[in-house]
Amino acid sequence: xxxxxxxxxxxxxxxxxxxxxxxxxxxxxxxxxxxxxxxxxxxxxxxxxxxxxxxxxxxxxxxxxxxxxxxxxxxxxxxxxxxxxxxxxxxxxxxxxxxxxxxxxxxxxxxxx
Amino acid sequence: xxxxxxxxxxxxxxxxxxxxxxxxxxxxxxxxxxxxxxxxxxxxxxxxxxxxxxxxxxxxxxxxxxxxxxxxxxxxxxxxxxxxxxxxxxxxxxxxxxxxxxxxxxxxxx
Lengths: 113, 110
What we know:
The complex is a heterodimer.
Chain A: E1 4-7, E2 10-13, E3 19-25, E4 31-38, E5 42-51, E6 54-57, E7 65-66, E8 76-78, E9 87-94, E10 103-104, E11 108-112
Parallel strand pairs in A: 2-11
Antiparallel strand pairs in A: 1-3, 3-8, 4-5, 4-9, 5-6, 7-8, 9-10, 9-11
Chain B: E1 2-3, E2 10-14, E3 19-24, E4 32-38, E5 45-51, E6 56-58, E7 62-67, E8 72-77, E9 86-94, E10 97-100, E11 104-109
Parallel strand pairs in B: 1-3, 2-11
Antiparallel strand pairs in B: 3-8, 4-5, 4-9, 6-7, 7-8, 9-10, 9-11
């Protein structure tokens, strides 16, 4: 089944404790992206990747890191999480970054205490 | 309608009526526009898209209209059904960078 998977789905952590949210897609898509969703603000793009070893900042990249060492995986790293990073995170992928439908993962709900 | 950064508006529609959701976008360089539907507890789901060289595109029960002159996007849903109740987001894109609107809550009443 074609899909985007994220792990973990739920995470409660404490300020400053490094964490990684994994994202994987099995559709051989070139483009992958991370978003955070907060009430009243819609989805805001954190980072995106047009292809392997190519990453770019979205609108809210501060406090996050990403890497794209292989096509199928695009992990989101929070080196020192803070409470304002408490949010619902979505990973998405598409065939390429230009004019193609994005497929979204199920989301990761992160709480930073 | 919705616009980037505004609080979530609500559209109440009677079952069987047509729905129109509006969206104002901000970037004149955006060349790709998409509508997504998000049901509670799920990730956004693609509905329909349109490229900047078009002004109208139709899908199954949905139509997207693009007016580049006033930077306006709309989604029309024909014969709205209870299953259409959800939050609807518009998004604009330029070279892989996406910006989403805040969303419109659509509530379908019997």
